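Hey all, quick one. A colleague (J.T.) asked me to put the zinc ion job into the tracker so the inputs and the structure tokens live in one place instead of scattered across chat threads. No bug as far as I know, just bookkeeping. Sequence used:
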Amino acid sequence: MEAHPNSADVKKRIHSMVSKLREHSFRITPQRLAVLRVLAASEGHPSVERIYETVRQEFPTTSIATIYKTVNLLKQINELLEISFPDGSNRYDGYKPFPHPHLICIKCKKIVDLDLDSLDAMEKEVALETNFEILNHRLDFFGICNTCMAKKV
Ligand SMILES: [Zn+2]
Ligand SMILES: [Zn+2]
């Protein structure tokens, strides 16, 4: 049920982001490309701070403003899904930039994608019962991952 992106799919996502950004006259610098790589791999659904730390290992002069600028532009052109939380700790999925269910570990804050067969049926049921036209959804499950369970903290 847990879907992990493979490297060919990640490359496809980077390529798609790059061409969309170019359509919007956004210059692709090596630093920005590094940001796209982190977002496309979407490992654990990174925060801006996590993206910044990762990119700085390769490009120490990168500023956090570069990360924000790239993230905001990708959001505007629907190439990035923002998962926001009441405490302001936004997380990002550039691999699947459309609504999909997530599973969140309340201890280590890891976020995992879920592929639920029942989701289409659920959406139809909501539309049928409410007469709404359903445009979007947000579905988060919260729990404790098995790494954290093993640590027993
Ligand atoms: Zn955990
Ligand atoms: Zn996701």
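Adding what we noticed when we looked at it: The chain has a mean pLDDT of 93. The radius of gyration is 17 Å.
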